[in-house]
Amino acid sequence: MRISKQAVSTLLLAMVMMVGCGTTQKNLFKASIDYTIRDGVIILDEPARSPNQRSVLELRCAPIETVRVGFVGLGMRGPGAVERFTYIEGVAINGLCDKYPERAERCQEYLDRAGMPRATIYSGDEGYKALCESDDIDLVYIATPWQLHVEVAVYAMNHGKHVAIEVPSANTIEECWQLVDAAERNRVHCTILENCCYDHFELTTLNMAQKGLFGEIIHAEGAYIHNLEPYWQHYADNWRLEYNQAHNGDIYATHGIGPNCQALNIHRGDRLDYLVAMSTKSINGTKLTKELMGKDECKQGDQINTLIRTVNGCTIDMQHNVMTPRPYSRMYQLVGTEGFANKYPVQGYTFKLDQIKSVATDENGMPDIEALDHHSFAPSEVAIEMTKLYRHPVQLQLVDGIPLQEYSLQIGGHGGMDFIMDYRLVYCLRNGLPLDMDVYDAAEWSAMGELTRISIENGSKPVKVPDFTRGEWDKINGLTFYFAE
Asked: Do 74 and 97 form a contact (C-beta atoms < 8 A)?
C-alpha cells in the first residue's frame, strides 16, 4: 500500500505531539529511569513503595554496644577511615576487604598500632560478599570506586548490615532507588559519608541558621572545584578518569549540596523541586583523556553549572570543575533575610545590626557592633565571638573530657571533619539514635549526577528532582542531631 506524503507528515506530527504530551522516552533521552516531558519539564517515573517497605525517616535501631565494622575498599580513602576508627571507643574492626589483598593486609598495621586484634582479610572482585555474610559485622563501611557503591551496599543491607557509603553513594537515579528500597525493606541504616557536613565552619554556620541568625534562608551556593591533575594517575585501574570521560553532569555534587540541604531542611520541611544544568565544552578533559586513555572524547565538560529550586521557593547554585587550575572551593554560602555566611574564597559573616544586638548581653556582648557595615563582612572580632557563641552541639560533644571539635584536630582527616563524621556514626549506632544523615540524603544528594546530565543532554531543560521520601518530605520539622539522654 502506498502512503502519501501528507499521511507521513501527519504521522510524524502525531509522534512529536505524543513526546510533548508525555510519552516515555528512555532510549531517546538516555536515563536509568523512564520519564516523560510535560510542558517542557522532564519528569522521571517514581516507583511506588512495596507493601513490605516502610519509611526509615529518623529510623531508630537497637543500640549496639560494640560496633563491629568491616571496611570494603582500601585504596585512597579507606585506609584513613580504618586508622580513624581505631581512635573511637566501642569499635571492633573485624573485616578488611579490597580487590587487592596486599592493600587490605597493609591496614592491619593500624590495628597493631592501636593494640586491637587483627581483622579477617577478604579480597578479590567479590570478596565483599563473604564480609557482608559474616555474623561478626554490624556496619559495612564502603570506600570502593563509585561504580561499586550500590552493589556492595545493597548486598550488605540484604544481609542485615548497616552501611556507610563514600560519596557519591550512587551514580544513577535507579541506583538511588535501590538504596532507598533496600534500607526500607531491611529496616537498616544507610548513611552517606559526606564529611563536609562536619566541617567546623559548616557546623557553626548551620547552628546559626537553625537559631535564626540569618533570618529565613532563601539562597545557598555550593561546589566542588578542585584541580585533580596531580591525582588522576593514582586512582586504581584509572576508575575515576574513566567515569569522567564517560559521563557529563555534576557527578560529584555532594560536598557542595550536602551542607546546603541541611541548612534548608531538605526532606525535613522542604524538598528539591527541579533543576536546570549546563556544561561548557571539554578542553582540558579531552586533552587529559587523550593522553592517559587514548580516547578522543571526554563527555564531562570542564565546568558544570546547576541551578536548583525548592518547593518552598529557595534556590541553590551549584558548580563542578575538576579540570582547570581554579583554586579549591566548595563555594559554601548561605543568603538569609537577616544575615549572610560565606566560606570561599573569603570566610566571613554579615548580619543586620539588630541581629547582633539581639544576642549581645553583658556577659558576651559583641565588640564594635555599631561598626557593622552591610557593604562588607562583620569585623573579625565580631565573627570570632559569634562562632564561639554558636558552636554546634556536635562540636561541643565531649570525648574524654575534650570537646569533639578540639579532639578531632588531634586525629586529623581533612581538618578533623572526617573524624567527627565517623565518631557521630558510631555514637548514634551505639545509642540507638537516628543518624545525622539518612538514606534519603544519600539518594537526593547523589541523584544530582544523573539529573544534571539529563538536563544538559536535553538542551538544559528543567528536570524534576524525584521525591525519594515518597511524599513524606514535610513530616519532620527541621534537621535534628540526636544525643543520648
From this structure: yes
Q: How far is residue 453's CA from residue 29's CA, in Å, rounded to a whole number? A: 10
User: Residue written as cell 561598626?
Assistant: 371
The answer to whether the CB of 93 falls within 8 A of the CB of 71 is yes
Condensed to tens digits (0 to 9), the pLDDT of residues 165-178 reads 999 999 999 999 99
CA distance 329 to 206: 18
Confidence of residue 18 (pLDDT cuts 50, 70, 90): very low
- CA–CA distance, 116 with 112 (Å, rounded to integer): 6
Map grid coordinates 546547576 to a residue: 306
Under CATH, what is the fold of the domain 197-391+448-460?
Answer: Dihydrodipicolinate Reductase; domain 2 (3.30.360)
Question: Which residues are CB-neighbours of 46 under 8 A, at least 6 positions away?
Answer: 466, 467, 470
DSSP 8-state assignment for residue 224: E
How does pLDDT run across 225-242, given as a tens digit for each residue?
Answer: 999 999 999 998 999 999
| 292-307 as b/e: b if 16+ CB within 10 A | eeeeeebbbbbbbbbb
pLDDT digits (tens, 9 = 90+) for 79-96: 999 999 999 999 999 999
Q: Flag whether pLDDT at 15 surpasses 50.
A: no
Distance, in Å, from the CA atom of 130 to the CA atom of 215, rounded to the nearest integer, reads 51
* Virtual torsion, Cα 364, 370, 374, 378, nearest 10 deg: -40
pLDDT at 25: 44
- Predicted pLDDT of residue 363: 56
- pTM, 2 dp: 0.93
**Residue 393: its H or E element:** helix 393-396
Q: What is the pLDDT of residues 414-448, one digit of tens each?
A: 999 999 999 999 999 999 999 999 999 999 999 99
Backbone φ and ψ of 62, nearest 5°: -60, 135
Domain residue spans of the chain? 5-44, 197-391+448-460
Give dist(CA 408, CA 405) in Å, integer.
Answer: 5
Of 342, 265, 354, 272, which is closest to residue 310 (Cα–Cα)? 272
What pLDDT, on the 0 to 100 scale, is given for residue 367?
A: 66
User: For residue 447, which of 238, 306, 236, 278 has the smallest C-alpha distance?
Assistant: 306
Please answer whether residues 209 and 336 qualify as being in contact, where contact means their C-beta atoms are separated by less than 8 angstroms.
yes
